[in-house]
Design goal:
The structure is a single chain. The protein has a domain of 40 residues. Helix 1 crosses helix 2. The mean pLDDT is 78. The protein is 55% helix and 0% strand. The two termini are 30 Å apart. By secondary structure, the chain is mainly alpha-helical.
């Protein structure tokens, strides 16, 4: 697999960005219930709970989105 580090990044910077992305993902997941599947309002029927595999997949997708957001350059810098 090719190294994802950009040529102008420092060796520890990639790990730092991944840590920031992980913290961002945890914040979003905990505060919004991301990936758990919410039951439809007003219906008491079957729960819309997702399987553990589906939940894990949605969290991995969220982490990738957070990595992309953290890795984007800040305008004006």
């Amino acid at each position: 697999m090719a190294d994802e580090k950009a040529p102008d990044t420092k060796p520890g910077e990639k790990n730092n960005r991944d840590e920031v992305a992980l913290e961002l993902m945890k914040f979003i997941a905990v505060s919004t219930g991301y990936g758990k599947g919410a039951p439809a309002a007003g219906f008491a029927g079957k729960s819309a709970a997702r399987s553990p595999e589906e939940y894990a997949e949605s969290l991995l997708e969220l982490f990738q989105r957070c990595r992309q957001a953290v890795g984007k350059p800040v305008p004006g810098e």
